[in-house]
Design brief:
With about 300 residues, the protein is an alpha+beta fold. The protein folds into 2 domains: about 170 residues, Roll (2,3-Dihydroxybiphenyl 1,2-Dioxygenase, domain 1); about 120 residues, 2,3-Dihydroxybiphenyl 1,2-Dioxygenase, domain 1, CATH 3.10.180. The protein is built from 8 helices and 17 strands. Strands 1, 2, 3, 4, 5, 6, 7, 8 and 9 form a 9-stranded mixed β-sheet that branches. Strands 11-12-13-10-14-17-16-15 form an 8-stranded mixed β-sheet. The longest helix has 10 residues. The N terminus is likely disordered.
């Protein structure tokens, strides 16, 4: 696998201080991949063919403009390894997450150099793990299969067990991104926001700055927000979350930091609404956004807003 040129760790960390990381993708963990695919197709997304990871999980993607949703399920529990002090296990994290609930389990930011991200996280006193490299065969629009490869840099938010965080560096982007997979009946073009809930968002202020590389967060009585080069990450109080996504969007107050909502930017608001109704979904209108409640999407409030 071809990896980036080596840099001194100090240089790597400093280079990222002024280079915030954009949203790469959101991991949505489901117990039944076919059911998860059916839900996201009803939401109006075009999905990639199913694929399997060598460590026992399987997935299907909804690609957007250089960001995506990764729907993940457990395929072979026997292949899943445990997390150690040196190595983080994607499979084990999502397996354990699914023991408690379905929904969005991990936030992933883009990377141009996974080693530099690890050095940067360490310089900011975040927990780090060995770089994780892997590859798999990905189904192409013409029916062929091509190699895709990635390097991942995992970290942890202090005291947080319910949500995972890592960055993803791609090595074969031409085999990964395809325009045909990025055209969606609902008109979605990008992830506008990923929304987490915490009793006290300020507790996670330092981590959010360190993870995104954005030192200029917006703080209000509702919570904290980090603008990234691709989409916003917000941590809101339960009351603020219900105000944004509707009173039925949060069935309980999480005791941990949890991802409970996300917003997509769409090109044709009217067509989006018509498509969601045609898909058999109940929609609500909150603050100029169409919202699908978590009871219809396996635990994640999904909103659509005009681009």
């Amino acid at each position: 696998m071809t990896l980036s040129a080596e840099m001194h760790p100090t240089d790597q960390a400093l280079s990222l201080v002024t280079r915030p990381r954009g949203i790469d993708h959101l991991v949505v963990a489901v117990r039944d991949l076919d059911q998860g695919r059916a839900i996201w197709q009803a939401l109006g997304f075009t999905l990639t063919p199913k694929a399997e990871h060598p460590w026992g999980t399987q997935n299907s993607l909804a690609q957007l403009d250089h960001c995506f949703i990764e729907i993940v399920a457990i395929a072979d529990p026997a292949k899943i390894k445990s997390t150690t002090k040196k190595a983080f296990s994607f499979g084990a994290f999502n397996r354990d997450y699914l023991k408690k609930r379905e929904g969005a389990s991990m936030i992933v930011l883009e990377s141009t150099d996974a080693d530099a991200d690890i050095a940067d996280f360490a310089s900011r006193s975040l927990e780090t793990f060995q770089r994780f490299d892997f590859e798999r065969m990905a189904g192409q629009p013409d029916g062929s299969r091509e190699r895709v490869a990635f390097s991942l840099a995992f970290t942890r938010a202090p005291g947080v067990k319910a949500t995972g965080f890592f960055t993803c560096q791609q090595h074969e982007p031409d085999h990964f991104w395809h325009e045909v997979y990025q055209r969606h009946p609902n008109g979605a073009t990008t992830i506008a926001e990923i929304t987490l809930v915490a009793k006290d968002p300020a507790d996670h202020h330092i981590f959010l700055k360190s993870f995104t590389g954005n030192s200029d967060l917006r703080s209000t009585s509702l919570g904290i927000e980090a603008e990234t080069p691709r989409g916003k990450i917000a941590i809101l109080t339960p009351q603020a979350f219900r105000f944004r996504y509707g009173p039925a969007s949060l069935d309980n107050v999480p005791s941990d930091l949890e991802i409970r909502g996300m917003t997509f930017a769409v090109t044709n608001f009217g067509a989006t609404a018509a498509g969601l109704v045609a898909g058999g979904l109940k929609i609500a209108d909150y603050h100029d956004a169409l919202v699908i409640g978590p009871d219809q999407t396996l635990g994640l409030a999904v909103a659509f807003r005009p681009a």
